[in-house]
């Protein structure tokens, strides 16, 4: 079926997907894999252009099966039209009785001996189906669990990806500006969270990139608080953590709003978090390890006496997923590279009292980093 989108799919030149697929095959060869089953939705899009989302982990909208010279897109009746249009370089296989029923013939076609799977995503049931299908046609074949193979490509962003992320950041900032100016004591957390979702949709986003966090007063001591019916009070700190998904790419940002008059202790921890974030921003550069960057902010907060109140990592990658590699934390080091896009989001959380978190997104440059955020909304006491 001809691609009605022509040379481009979703605004991306088909050559981009073909180049990614070539690089992915190089990674497969490095791991001595002749076939790979791609199940992670973001990886599926990244390699093929097929945009459909999975409704839940146990209900997939499709898989890619990549061989050394052939590639298939497996899906069901519901998605066959869009799959054919969005991934014209993949041979479409529409399964009627489940993906596993098609695998034996496909493994035979690909002469599969070692097939890689994404162990961090594939269910155990699906793993067994893949293994049984391979044994049916090649008793000596091997199913090889892998983690992060396609993500290894996604970790460094292409210029077109950076541009899409910028657009997502800009849209979220317009929403935040409106919400920030309207915030006042007497509003409920759930009310504010709904405003974030409503305004994000009305501004043209596909969706929020995660359920907004609106945490006031003592609830701000919970890093991933769920908005409640709590009424914002005078003197509260209110953590606003939000993002959108626009043209498939995500944004993620956090500001902490203060209801006048903020108590001195809240102002103190706010200043510490703000300055820790600035220190990390100034330190970020290619060649350093993610653990080193995390330590810059963590040591700053430790010296201020709040070491035990900053329990999460400094940040994470953002792209097709709102949380992706690299993790910027105190373990599992990754060398930072130019054109990685990460968050820088230190926080201090005091149980029963409140908390502060500030988050910007940064693109690593040749000798430092570029903050993608333009909206300030930061206090300078």
Question: What can you see in these coordinates?
Answer:
The chain has 2 domains: 8-154, Creatine Amidinohydrolase, Chain A, domain 1 (3-Layer(aba) Sandwich); 159-371, Alpha-Beta Complex (Creatine Amidinohydrolase). Helix content is 35%, strand content 22%. Strands 6-5-4-3-7-8 form a 6-stranded mixed β-sheet, sandwiched between helices. A 3-stranded antiparallel β-sheet has the order 9-12-13. Strands 10-11-14 form a 3-stranded antiparallel β-sheet, with helices on one face. It has 381 residues and is α+β, with helices and mostly antiparallel strands. It is built from 10 helices and 21 strands. The longest helix is centred in the middle third of the chain and has 24 residues, at 159-182. The model is unreliable at 1-9 (pLDDT under 50). A hairpin with a 6-residue loop joins strand 15 (315-317) and strand 16. The radius of gyration is 23 Å and the shape is elongated. Helix 4 packs across helix 5 and helix 7 (159-182) crosses helix 8 (189-202).
């Amino acid at each position: 079926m001809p691609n009605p989108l022509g040379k481009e799919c979703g605004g991306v030149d088909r050559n981009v997907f073909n180049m990614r697929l070539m690089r992915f095959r190089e990674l497969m060869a490095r791991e001595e894999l002749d076939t790979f089953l791609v199940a992670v939705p973001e990886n599926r899009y990244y390699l093929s252009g097929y945009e459909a989302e999975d409704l839940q982990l146990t209900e997939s909208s499709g898989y890619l099966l990549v061989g050394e010279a052939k590639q298939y897109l497996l899906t069901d009746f519901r998605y066959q039209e869009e799959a054919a249009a969005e991934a014209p370089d993949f041979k479409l296989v529409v399964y009627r009785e489940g993906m596993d029923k098609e695998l034996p013939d496909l493994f035979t076609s690909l002469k599969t001996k070692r097939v890689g799977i994404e162990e961090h995503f594939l269910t155990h049931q699906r793993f067994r189906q893949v293994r049984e299908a391979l044994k049916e046609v090649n008793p000596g074949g091997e199913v090889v669990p892998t983690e992060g193979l396609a993500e290894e490509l996604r970790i460094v962003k292409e210029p077109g990806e950076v541009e899409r992320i910028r657009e997502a950041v800009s849209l979220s900032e317009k929403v935040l500006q409106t919400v920030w100016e309207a915030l006042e004591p007497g509003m409920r957390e759930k009310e504010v969270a709904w405003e974030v979702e409503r305004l994000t949709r009305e501004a043209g986003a596909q969706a929020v990139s995660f359920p907004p966090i609106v945490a006031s007063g003592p609830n701000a001591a919970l890093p991933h608080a769920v908005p409640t019916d709590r009424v914002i009070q005078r003197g509260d700190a209110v953590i606003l953590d939000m993002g959108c998904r626009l043209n498939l790419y995500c944004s993620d940002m956090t500001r902490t709003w203060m209801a006048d008059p903020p108590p001195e202790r809240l102002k103190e921890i706010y200043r510490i978090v703000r300055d820790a974030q600035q220190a990390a921003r100034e330190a970020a550069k290619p060649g350093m390890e993610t653990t080193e960057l995390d330590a810059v902010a963590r040591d700053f907060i430790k010296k201020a006496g709040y070491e035990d109140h900053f329990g999460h990592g400094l940040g994470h990658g953002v792209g097709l997923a709102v949380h992706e590699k690299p993790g910027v934390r105190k373990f599992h080091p990754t060398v930072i590279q130019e054109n990685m896009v990460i968050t820088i989001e230190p926080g201090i959380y005091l149980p029963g009292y409140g908390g502060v978190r500030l988050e910007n997104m940064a693109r690593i440059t040749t000798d430092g980093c570029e903050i993608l955020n333009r909206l300030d909304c930061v206090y300078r006491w």
